[in-house]
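Hi R.,

As promised on Friday, here is the backbone we talked about, encoded as structure tokens. Could you run it through your design pipeline when you get a chance and send me back a sequence?
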């Protein structure tokens, strides 16, 4: 997953696939929020237009710190 925010255009995009993935279909979830799907109907991204307005003027990302001992790694 990758997050991108453009403060000049107030645009937030959340990638669930590689940024180069092409959308075959876009669905409006609500005004200003659009979900992009690939040709297999897999969600590849969400675009939020006027993000600060839709998110009540608060755009903040907090990531939980995970230690390697907490992670289950399968080789």
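Update: got your reply. Pasting your designed sequence below so it's all in one thread:
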């Amino acid at each position: 997953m990758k997050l991108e925010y453009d403060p000049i255009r107030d645009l937030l995009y959340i990638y669930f696939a590689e940024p180069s993935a092409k959308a075959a279909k876009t669905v409006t979830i609500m005004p200003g929020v659009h979900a992009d799907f690939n040709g297999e109907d897999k969600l590849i991204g969400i675009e939020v237009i006027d993000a600060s307005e839709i998110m009540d003027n608060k755009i903040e990302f907090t990531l939980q710190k995970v230690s390697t001992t907490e992670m289950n790694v399968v080789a």
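One thing I noticed while checking it: The helical segments are 51-54.

Thanks again,
M.
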